[in-house]
Amino acid sequence: MATPRLLEHYRKAVVPDLMKEFQYTNPMRVPKLTKIVVSMCLKEATSDGKVVEKAIDELSTITGQKPKMTRAKKAIAAFKLRQGMPLGAFSTLRGSHMYEFLDRFTNIALPRVRDFRGIPKNGFDGQGNYTMGLKEQIIFPEIIFDKVDKARGMNVTFVTTAETDNEGYVLLEKLGMPFRKN
């Protein structure tokens, strides 16, 4: 299997740039992307179990691997929720699948968002990881619009080895994330 285009870009261009910008002496100290987690949580799953199956099917089409179902840890009567009920699904991408997903996400899916002006910078968690939410799954070209019964949102989390938000921001920006220019 060939090396993903974005991984080659990271090795040849991003690592030297980050070493120069943050004065790293060892290339192993340069922050890197470790995993991407794509998750869906469905409140309507409490009343209809088939909703989770449809979400799992769409998530597997988007990520290219079988997602894992999430279940309720405890019962909450106000939400009509019992322990063990399915609530959503998530998929963790690592290695070449992760770089191929990031490439498709930044170059194909995000530009398809209506009135897209860049993603906000305020999704960092203080340790260099970035989380963003999407309102609908139809921005991915793998999803066939006619088969979608309802627009479902999802969260995409980019986990890095960066120690600060600034390092994580610079890493993701050099990998092609289209952040908003304020």
Could you give a short description of this structure?
The chain is of the alpha+beta class. The protein contains 4 helices and 5 strands; from the N terminus they run αβαββαββα. The chain has helices at 5-22, 50-63, 95-109, 165-174, and strands spanning 33-41, 68-71, 86-93, 130-134, 154-160.
List the topology elements.
Elements: H1 5-22, E1 33-41, H2 50-63, E2 68-71, E3 86-93, H3 95-109, E4 130-134, E5 154-160, H4 165-174
Helix pairs in contact: 1-4
Largest sheet: 5 strands, antiparallel
SS content category? alpha+beta
Q: Note the gap between the termini.
A: 40 Å
For this structure, the quaternary state is single chain
Question: What's the name of the CATH homologous superfamily?
Answer: Ribosomal protein L5
List the secondary-structure elements in sequence, H or E. Answer: HEHEEHEEH
Mean pLDDT: 87
Low-confidence stretches: none
What characteristic shape results from the CA principal axes? Answer: globular
Q: Report the radius of gyration as a whole number of Å.
A: 18 Å
Query: Could you tell me the strand content as a percent range?
Result: 15-25%
CATH structural fold name = 50s Ribosomal Protein L5, Chain: A
Biggest sheet: strand arrangement: 2-3-1-5-4
> Could you say how many structural domains there are in total?
1
Give the number of DSSP strands.
5
CATH class term = Alpha Beta
CATH architecture classification: 2-Layer Sandwich
Helix content: 25-40%
The helix tally amounts to: 4
